Amino acid sequence: MSRGRAIALRFVAVALVVVVAFWASLRAFTEYKAHRAKSLLAEASRIQIGDTESSVLALIGRYGGFKWTPEPEPLPPRDQWIDKDEYDYQYEYRNDLQSDYKYELGISPFGTTVAAPKDRWTETLRSVRESVPVRLRPLLGLRDWGTEVEVSIRRGHVQSVAAMTLVEGRSQWLGHRWELAERMPRSHMPSRAYAIGAANLTMAEGAG
């Protein structure tokens, strides 16, 4: 075997080792993120309406959550509403429906689906993912997903807690969302243990 051929084979072998090591690291990283997402959802499900803000701060810190204040949305005049009953409901319970501020927590291996904290490794993976054709991403373990939890605070207590998970499918995104709140967001929604609905989300790459 010639020296040049031996060097070429050695180079190919090293390249294969690097690729396999990177892929194994990627799989381990995404599995770690998935485990954290499951733990986050489990902990969020144990939060109760009326819990003190201080009781959820440890969870916020453990998952790198951040605090933000939503802009209050003033109600348009009543005569502009087609559904007057909805206006009356929104007006009567506006203090119960608006929060003072919220905590948002997100986990995503590539940081593209939710407001997850970004680090150098996540940014690198995101760049790698975006360079791979869409049809090849599932085969390489680059299918995106994200989990997000939102805790609303009013007057020092938990007003509502909501969680959402989005998963990139073959042709569309799949998702699930639940919310526990003091009051239904709309007047026509009866108070019950659960409500089921459907929605279409337009994602960054055009898929719904």
Can you list the strand order of the major beta sheet?
1-2-3-4-5
Query: What count of helical segments does DSSP give?
Result: 5
Please compute the radius of gyration using only Cα atoms. 23 Å
In percent, how helical is the residue content? 25-40%
Provide the residue-averaged pLDDT. Answer: 81
Strand content: 15-25%
Coarse structural class: alpha+beta
Poorly predicted ranges (pLDDT <50, ≥5 residues)? none
Order of helices and strands: HHEHHEHEEE
Distance between the termini: 55 Å
The biggest beta sheet reads: 5 strands, antiparallel
Number of strands: 5
Give an account of the 3D structure.
By secondary structure, the chain is α+β, with helices and mostly antiparallel strands. It has one domain. Helices cover 35% and strands 20% of the residues. The chain contains 5 helices and 5 strands; from the N terminus they run H-H-E-H-H-E-H-E-E-E. The chain has helices spanning 3-44, 57-62, 84-92, 94-97, 120-131; strands at residues 66-68, 101-107, 145-154, 157-168, 173-181. It has a 5-stranded antiparallel β-sheet with strand order 1-2-3-4-5, with helices on one face.
Summarize the entry for a quick read.
The protein is of the alpha+beta class and about 210 residues long.
Helix/strand layout:
Elements lengths: L2 H42 L12 H6 L3 E3 L15 H9 L1 H4 L3 E7 L12 H12 L13 E10 L2 E12 L4 E9 L27
Antiparallel strand pairs: 1-2, 2-3, 3-4, 4-5
